[in-house]
Write a structure and sequence with these properties.
single chain; 135 residues; alpha+beta; four-stranded antiparallel sheet; 2 helices; 4 strands; 19% strand
Length: 135
């Protein structure tokens, strides 16, 4: 009697493959979330650079950073492009310090590696807790 050999996967083999795919997916989602938070810091960096550039233009035109003729003041900081950060600043005639902090309820509020980014009139970039993570 000739029996045909049946080929295919057993249920155990199929469940093993599903378990492996689940483990790989769980690991990669953690990395992806971290990557998204890191890449969203660009929103803060570009906004800080844009505001600093406007302040430098004021300094070159009116000889101080806080001239009444400037369109950027500490009270009227423009929002970041994607809305992940708020920009605040201390602007004096001779210097400024700009700070970007994550907006509550946005994905960046979960960023524990970089809770704020700072840029000064001398171009010094800093971050909390470290500049290496933020800039």
């Amino acid at each position: 009697m000739n029996r045909k050999q049946i080929s295919g996967f057993t249920l155990v083999e199929l469940m093993l493959v599903v378990a492996i795919i689940g483990i790989i997916a769980a690991i990669s989602m953690g990395y992806y979330g971290s990557y998204v938070i890191d890449s969203n810091r660009t929103d803060a960096r570009s906004a800080l650079t844009r505001v600093a550039s406007s302040l430098e233009k004021c300094k070159s035109l009116y000889s101080n950073y806080n001239s009444a003729n400037c369109n950027v003041t500490a009270a009227s900081m423009p929002p970041t492009d994607d809305g992940y950060y708020t920009i605040t600043g201390v602007i004096n005639a001779a210097d400024f310090i700009l700070t970007a902090t994550p907006v509550a309820g946005q994905p960046q509020a979960n960023d524990t590696e970089c809770t704020s980014l700072t840029l000064t009139h001398t171009g010094i970039q800093s971050g909390t807790p470290t500049v290496n993570e933020c800039w």
